[in-house]
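REVIEWER CHECKLIST
Item 1: Sequence provided? yes
Item 2: Single chain? yes
Item 3: Sequence as submitted:
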Amino acid sequence: MSENENATPDADEPPPVEASCSTDCSSENDPSIGTPRRNFVVEIMAAGVGALVGIVPAAIGGLFFLDPLLRKRGKGEGDGFIETDLVLDALPEDGTPIRYTVRDDLINAWNMFPDQPIGSAWLRRIQDQVLAFNTVCPHLGCAVEHRPSEGDFYCPCHTSAFDMNGEPLNVIPPRAMDTLEAEVRDGRIWLKYQEFRGATSEKVPV
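Item 4: Structure as written out by the authors:
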């Protein structure tokens, strides 16, 4: 055996010093550093996604709830007028009245029923204008008829009578026939249909 192999370390020689590192040095290799910040970002993103998931159904539900209020009524243009399928030339030039069934889209809460009859009107052509009356008698709500032989409007329920301008011919009706607003737009007749309270001298919409 060689002399080097049998040599023993000097008792006075200090033990070898292992490489050491400060806390800052060891933290560089610690994967847990930065985790709180990443968790915070993830939580913010999750909260944003959750908010979107909740807002979208709520917005859709809100639009569904408000739909009857936001929806335009029928064939009108937002001014209450309804476009009829009549042109001015369809009315007799001599002023003979034509009974017209008014149709519109009915909205009942969240249901819409398109092109439904909502009432009727007597229409008379006066040159290039239209004179319109509600066919409901202002007395007690019966239907007013036209009598060509008498040249008047007549209610068979209580013998109310009106001239061709809707003015009462006897004391039975409390007021004249209820006129309706009518306009001619590009040759087509537009009508603002309304109903009114009966048995009163005042014309009160209902």
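Item 5: Key structural point noted by reviewer: The longest strand covers residues 111-126.
Item 6: Recommendation: ____
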